[in-house]
Hints:
CATH topology of the largest domain: Rossmann fold
Helix content: 40-55%
Bound molecules: guanosine-5'-triphosphate, magnesium ion
CATH architecture of the largest domain: 3-Layer(aba) Sandwich
Strand order of the largest sheet: 3-4-5-6-2-1-7
Amino acid sequence: xxxxxxAISTPPGEGGIAIIxxxxxxxxxxxxxxxxxxxxxxxxxxxxxxxxxxxxxxxxEGEAIDEVLLALMRAPRSYTxxxxxxxxxxxxxxxxxxCLETVMRQGVRIAEPGEFTRRAFLNGRLxxxxxxxxxxxxxxxxxxxxQLALKQLGGRNSEYIHTLEDRLLELNAMVEGSLxxxxxxxxxxxxxxxxxxxxxxxxxxxxxxxxxxxDVYREGITIVICGKPNVGKSSLLNTxxxxxxxxxxxxxxxxxxVIEEQIIIKGxxxxxxxxxxxxxxxxxxxxxxxxxxxEVIREAxxxxxxxxxxxxxxxxxxxIYRSIENQNLIILVNKEDLEEKNxxxxxxxxxxxxxxVIKVSAKEEQxxxxxxxxxxxxxxxxxxxxxxxxxxxxxxxxxxxxxxxQHLQDALQELDQVTLDCLGVDVxxxxxxxxxxxxxxxxxxxxxxxxxxxxxxx
Length: 458
Ligand SMILES: Nc1nc2c(ncn2[C@@H]2O[C@H](COP(=O)(O)OP(=O)(O)OP(=O)(O)O)[C@@H](O)[C@H]2O)c(=O)[nH]1
Ligand SMILES: [Mg+2]
């Protein structure tokens, strides 16, 4: 049983409505003291869960503070698993604040960030992985990451972990059986034990790989367009963001600053940057632009290196290439729409061996689909087709999975070398590590860390 808490759950500022959320075993009683229903015969203490009542929040003198809708949810069928009252007041800063103050005068404490979700976890409404999914949903930057987070909230991750745990328990029973009742159970079936361990290792590897893919959807990537002046960098940015964002002219040196836009490519949030054409210049402003460009290029997850099909590969191109050849690169031969072409595939193979090369026209929007496909393939490491497991793995989960993985590797080693006792210890170690993901026996500070990113009122 925890104390009664309350917070404004909607963002600060003006809006249609603001919601003050209350949770705890005493909140319905306390709310009834400061709420005057429009229909005087109603007593919210008698109301069923999932009901709404219109009325006023009133102060100690009985004066109305705001007209509100009061929503009521009864334990255990609420977000926190406790009695929950939500006061929907007018969406200004003052109404919400005055209502909250009135609530607090009834002996309700202000909630800490994430405390509602923490209660849902402590009351067993959500396991740890599900509680963490809540913040992923709030933070989601693309439909894809939101969809993954929703699945996590629905218990998808926990299901995988439970399957792994079941297999480990089976293994554990085998080991303990042969240890404790060698007569009845007989020797450990080494082949079967080994098969289980290998299967588990395989699944954990898949989960970690899938988690890395999901990270791309969750965190997004930065892609920088680079090349010498006038190759069509800004035109490409405009085409990809589908608006005239950057100035395009036929004068080399048009772009002098880094231009950044956020877009979604195949469900991946992308920070796309257009840069100043890289070349030697005495113009002070351009010089700074070139330096800035080189800086963002160094930090990019992926670089799109543009060449001019009409002009051919020049010394300037090769010089730029030397400075970026260690990065993730896609080479784009731009201006494919023009009649005259001066880049042969032999030249390309000679100068840029083994690299992905795509012919595009930024102006006529040719090759863009192929470019988007290649970006997806490149950042997801070509693993897209290998298995279609889709799961989000946060840092905490990954650490736990890696620990379980290590225990299983050790167990594999021990299988035919050391005693069964050691094997048993590692099987337990793996089980414990996995248990942390769904939140069995979590330490207080780990729980604190789980909720530290939450906002107040969630
Ligand atoms: N025919 C054709 N012209 C293009 C294409 N892409 C860009 N251009 C033209 O090339 C010129 C330069 O384009 P920009 O997009 O400004 O080139 P940039 O690389 O950003 O140039 P700087 O900012 O000066 O470094 C403009 O006249 C564009 O219209 C293309 O695919 N085909
Ligand atoms: Mg430009």
